[in-house]
């Protein structure tokens, strides 16, 4: 299934990427500090030390619970949010030092599809302008050719071109998501970041949109970063899966490896929560506890307060990503034990 590029450098590469959001001390806190209080700025560690390579033509699934930092990571890749530390490379070159022309190629070449299409589409603009404005502004299409260009894109994403004069509120949720896909395709990108692109859709519509992503990938040789909280959805489209927990990557592996030989206890817990067509009775056990606050992440392994297999060292020593097999890395102290972790295989969704 994988169609990784043959170029030496990955299309997108992240090295040591951090993202921190800082809320400064307010006026009352600053006054209190003058009187001896010790109010400090609140710092949210959304993404911490992420290294990731994305090859041209590859589909990477990024999975984790809400609040794990996956959407923030996607916005960094798309250039919407700058990293607080670390570097983003595009075609082997650091983005922050790209010349103007190459920087523009990066900004047009990496587009994003947002989770809530109604919130991301301008309610005062018609579909013709939502899809067609940016390619005209950036000189990809002449103004005289805008209607024909938008009509062709609408057909490719499964929309009737006669609807080009309508507003977003006149469409269903699935149709609005297709408009968002068309808007992303309008700039002829090489990579698209899909942030929970099917989470708000009905299951039947999810299948249609996932099939559309697969079809567009073949037609346009696209690279996807597919962000989702649902491993089952990612299993339908991804070549590799990245598991994130509290801003860090805890496991990276090919999709079939994640479903059949998951290593990290968090990955195993996510798989155990997936619904199944198996008619045999099973005991459903959700992941224990709540996701810790990124304002005060746990010491050591961030998953240790919820991990049923935690070791004493897990609370004090942060595990590093360790290569278990070609293309498979995991950050877990259990891998240092003489006996490997045993899991029950779970088939990749058909």
What would a concise description of this structure say?
This protein is an alpha/beta fold and 350 residues long. It is 29% helix and 21% strand.
How would you characterize the largest beta sheet?
Answer: 8 strands, mixed
Uncertain segments of ≥5 residues (pLDDT<50)? 1-7
- Percent in helix: 25-40%
As a percent range, the share of strand residues is 15-25%
The whole-angstrom Rg is 22 Å
What is the H/E order?
Answer: EHEEHEEHEHHHHEHEHEEHHEE
Query: Could you give the distance between the termini?
Result: 13 Å
Number of helices: 11
Q: Could you give the count of β-strands?
A: 12
Please describe the topology of this protein:
Blueprint: E1 12-23, H1 27-34, E2 42-54, E3 59-63, H2 70-77, E4 85-90, E5 93-94, H3 100-109, E6 110-113, H4 117-120, H5 127-137, H6 146-156, H7 173-185, E7 191-195, H8 203-220, E8 223-228, H9 231-234, E9 240-245, E10 248-254, H10 255-260, H11 265-272, E11 322-325, E12 328-330
Parallel strand pairs: 3-8, 3-9, 6-7, 7-8
Antiparallel strand pairs: 1-2, 1-4, 4-5, 9-10, 10-12, 11-12
Helix pairs in contact: 5-6, 5-7, 6-7
């Amino acid at each position: 299934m994988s169609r990784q590029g043959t170029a030496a450098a990955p299309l997108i590469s992240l090295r040591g990427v951090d993202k921190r959001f800082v809320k400064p001390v307010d006026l009352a806190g600053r006054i209190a500090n003058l009187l001896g209080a010790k109010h400090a700025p609140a710092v949210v560690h959304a993404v911490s030390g992420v290294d990731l390579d994305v090859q041209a033509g590859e589909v990477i699934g990024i999975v984790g619970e809400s609040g794990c930092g996956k959407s923030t990571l996607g916005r960094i890749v798309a250039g919407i949010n700058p990293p607080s530390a670390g570097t983003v490379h595009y075609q082997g070159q650091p983005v922050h030092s790209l010349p103007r022309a190459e920087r523009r190629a990066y900004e047009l070449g990496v587009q994003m599809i947002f989770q809530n299409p109604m919130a991301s589409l301008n309610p005062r603009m018609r579909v013709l302008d939502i899809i067609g404005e940016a390619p005209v502004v950036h000189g990809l299409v002449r103004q005289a050719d805008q209607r024909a260009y938008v009509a062709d894109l609408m057909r490719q994403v499964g929309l009737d071109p006669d609807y080009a004069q309508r507003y977003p509120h006149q469409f269903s949720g699935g149709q609005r998501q297709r408009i968002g896909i068309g808007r992303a395709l309008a700039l002829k990108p090489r990579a698209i970041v899909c942030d929970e692109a099917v989470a708000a859709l009905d299951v039947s519509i999810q299948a249609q949109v996932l099939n559309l992503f697969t079809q567009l990938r073949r037609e346009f040789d696209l690279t996807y970063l597919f962000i989702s909280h649902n491993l089952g959805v990612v299993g339908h489209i991804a070549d590799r899966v990245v598991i994130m927990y509290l801003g860090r990557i805890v496991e990276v592996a090919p999709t079939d490896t994640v479903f059949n030989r998951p290593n990290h206890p968090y990955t195993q817990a996510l798989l155990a929560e997936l619904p199944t067509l198996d008619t045999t009775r099973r005991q459903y056990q959700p992941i224990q506890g709540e996701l810790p606050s990124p304002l005060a992440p746990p010491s050591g392994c961030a998953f240790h307060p919820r991990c049923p297999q935690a070791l004493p060292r897990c609370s004090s020593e942060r595990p590093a990503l360790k290569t278990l097999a070609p293309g498979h890395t995991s950050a877990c102290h259990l891998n240092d034990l003489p006996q490997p972790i045993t899991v029950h295989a779970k088939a990749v969704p058909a």
